[in-house]
Every structure is written in structure tokens, then in C-alpha cells.
Model the fold of this input.
Amino acid sequence: MQRDLSVLTSLTVTAGRDKSGRGEEQDIVFRPGEISALLGPTGSGKSRFLSDIESIANGDTPTGRKLLLDGVAPDSDKRFSLQGRLVAQLSQNMNFVLDMKVLDFIVTHAQSRGVPDAPEAAARVLDVANRLAGEPFEAQNHLAQLSGGQSRALMIADTALLSWSPVILIDEIENAGVDKRSALELLVKSDKIVVIATHDPVLALSADRRLVFQNGGVKGKFQRTAREAELLGALLEMELKISTIREALRSGIAPTLNLL
Amino acid sequence: MRLITVAGPPSCGKTSLIIKSCIHLMAGGISCAVVKFDCLKSRDDVLYAEANIPVSVVLSGGLCPDHFFATNLEEAFGWASKSQCCVIETAGLCNRCSPHIKGLLAVCVVDNLMGIDAPEKIGPMLQMADLVAITKGDLVSQAEREVYRHRIRQMNRRAVIRHVNGLTGQGCMDLAAIMAEAPSVETVTDMKLRFPMPAAICSYCLSERRIGSKYQKGNVRKATFGKTPCSAI
Done:
């Protein structure tokens, strides 16, 4: 029961209708290892879209969309066993609420997944998390002692390597204090379907394609072009400069204009 | 009438979840009524009324709230019988009680902030539920959600488990769909609780306030201290 989704090769959200009942133009197909960004103002329909995925919509939600797994609508047994588990979530509001040591907790998570060598798997998660985090932490640290950035890094590494869910939804991690590019690479390498809801231009352009929402429906679908990839490169350079200035300030060095 | 029992620890989101689900049921043409069993004070009638859901709040006061629930169920059923779907909300305050009834849909609500050992501590309210709704998942890590779910599954092999957001209502449509299929009954008379309620009848049931063995009569059990307890159920 736990393994049958590791072979998911595509997830399709069929065209539904927006808030005025107007039909969407096309089905949206998601594939593992691919990043999609959802863009649009609050109330434009991003959350509705995501909850259609999460609830395995079957024409029974206000949008009338249907979810297909590998091109087929899942039967009621499969729907039942998947519901609530298709999508893993990562967001800025999330915290570890447990009072446990980092390693012990990740081992517990690995055991709950039935991983054969849980301590080994947990050590790998910690190692990856430490590469994402700005400042490293110890296996014996308590979860509650981790900084915001360290927590986020651990959540990302754990979700990528241990989560059962084939789809990962990332909500607003732009200011989370982690290396977001490496985080995305990690998730893509773990063969997850990655969906990011964001307002951040760097994250939006890091996606292979963008879905733009308006009035409750998908209004446009944009594949990243070569010129946009160039723009992304330029934006990343700007971010690097900003972080150089931040580091200078943090270490007590007076930053100068020529850092730009 | 379809009768549904919803139980869960205080402040885990029962009321929000019931309101959001009833709104979906009513939008689908199913009339709802809610009976809330509470202890000392409740302002939930205002919340239900704001959502146009007929509600009756009853307070157990000095009585054990779960015994109070069992002794008033027939009357509650009678009050709600004009509606097609009646939800009974109770607080399983000591985590030992289970208001669930054989042959009716039994829902248990727990939240993700209770810690991953909570499913073991909750007892028959969770173990005997048909549907377990988990709230506040948006505040904790994916890993904690998954471990928590796993622990719930260990305690209850057959229940449907759903993540629900009581604030945004995410997941409530799914819940409403399950509630719309709940068994329908003509009466609750002669139906049976799934699990016996805690026994009592000692001097403290009869308003004794003094501490000391010499004041204790009736069903009194003395604990052994300094030893690891085995399961009490």
C-alpha cells in the first residue's frame, strides 16, 4: 500500500471552470522532477487548485476539475487510500513542536515509513540538511533549539528523502534562510512533483513553468524561455551581491558601493 | 435521521470543523442540527447560529459530562429529529470516554499540536472512531504530520484518517461527503455505546470535598506508586 505511488509518472489536473463558470482552456500535466510555480494575487485560485490536487478532485469540487494519476482517474479504493497523503507541504508557518533530539526524531520518522536501516537514512537526512542550512547543527540538538533556517533546512531534507508523498507543495519559503536553489535541486533529484506558490521572482523563474491564476482559474501557462533563464541568471547575481553585503554587515565590515 | 458523534479534546477544532462541514451539507440540500454537550460554559451556540445551523447547547454542570451525554441522548435525538442530519459534539475531557455508538458514524478530532504520543493517550474515543480528523497540520512539519498519522493508524487500524484545516475549511468538503453517507436511524433507543463509560459512585461523586481515606466510600481504587503502570484499559 505504501509503495504503489513511487511509480507515479504523471499527475493531470483536468480543465475545470473559474469563479464565473468560464471553462479553463487546458488540462495541466505534472511530472516528477519538474518544478511548477503558481502565481497570482491572493484569492485568484491558487489554494483552490492545490486543494483540488490534495483532495483528489473528481468533478465534485466547485471548480469541476478532476485529478488523473498516470492519465487515469483513480478508483474509489485508491482515492480513499491516497486522500490526504498525496501532497507533502512545506511552508514558512511550520515549526517543529516536539521536544525531541533531531536524530531521534528523524529516526522515528524513518521507522514510521518502514525504512530498513532507519539510523542510516536519518544520518543522510541530517547531512543533507546541514548542507542547506546556513549554520550547521548537531544530531543531538533538540528540535526546539534549531533556528528558523535550520528547521526549514531539516524539513526540506526530510521531505525530500523520507516523505511518502509524491507531490511537494512549497509555500512562501523565500525568506526562510536556506539555500533555496540547492533546496529545489534536492527536491527535483528526489523525483518529486514540485509545486511552488510564490511571489518571489527568483523562485518563480527557477520553475520549469509557471501557471498564472485569475478569478479562480488557470489563466496562463508559461514554459521558461531561454531569455527568462538569462534573466534568472542576472537576478541570481543580484541576490549574491545582496547576500555579500549582508555577510559584510553581519561580520562587522562596513560595506561599500563597489560591492554592487 | 443521520446521527454523527464528534468527540475530541478541548480546543482541537471540533466546532470549526463541524460548522464548515455542515455548511457543505446544507449547500447540498441536507438540513443539519447540532447538539453540543459541554461542561461549564460555552459560547459555541453563537458560532453555530452565525452559520445558520440550528443548535442546542446543554451543560452538564456538576455531573460527569459523558454520563450526562448518555442520559440525554434520546431527548437530544428528539429535539433534532426534524433535521436530516444531526451532529452531536462532545468533549471527551478525560480522554478516557468515548461517546461513540454502535451503528452510527463516529468521528474523533485531534490536533497536530498535541505531540506524537497523543494518539496512545487518547484511548477509545480515538480507537473506536470510524473517522479521525486531524487539525492544525499547517503549523507543524511534514515529518511530524506523517509520524502522527502513523501513530493514529497504529491505534486504529480501520478508521478513515483525514487532515482538515478548521480555519480555512480545507478538507471539510471531503468530510461532509462522508457525513452525508452516515447511517440513518429512526431512534437511538436500544442502541449501544461502543465502549463503557468510566465507572464512579464514590464519596466524591456525592460532593465530598474533604481529602483522606476515612472519607472515601463506594467504588474506590488505590493506586500503587513507584511502579510503571501497565495499560489502564
Observations:
- Chain A has a mean pLDDT of 88.
